UniProtKB/TrEMBL annotation:
<dbReference type="InterPro" id="IPR046357">
    <property type="entry name" value="PPIase_dom_sf"/>
</dbReference>
<keyword id="KW-0697">Rotamase</keyword>
<dbReference type="GO" id="GO:0003755">
    <property type="term" value="F:peptidyl-prolyl cis-trans isomerase activity"/>
</dbReference>
<dbReference type="InterPro" id="IPR001179">
    <property type="entry name" value="PPIase_FKBP_dom"/>
</dbReference>
<feature type="domain" description="PPIase FKBP-type">
    <location>
        <begin position="1"/>
        <end position="29"/>
    </location>
</feature>
<keyword id="KW-0413">Isomerase</keyword>
<protein>
    <recommendedName>
        <fullName>peptidylprolyl isomerase</fullName>
        <ecNumber>5.2.1.8</ecNumber>
    </recommendedName>
</protein>
Length: 47
């Protein structure tokens, strides 16, 4: 969540509105230094 504050962003966002964003993960790579060989292995580890 992100708060826009007491001023908002008129006329579209009222004061003190809470914005909720829906995002989609489009790529996944192992962290630098990770012992996981590739993204498929990392995804399986997280599931």
């Amino acid at each position: 969540m992100l708060m826009v504050g007491t001023t908002g962003s008129p006329p579209d966002i009222p004061p003190d509105a809470t914005l909720i964003f829906e995002v989609e993960l489009v790529a996944c790579r192992p962290r630098k230094g990770s012992r996981v060989a590739n993204a498929t292995d990392e995804r399986a580890r997280l599931e």
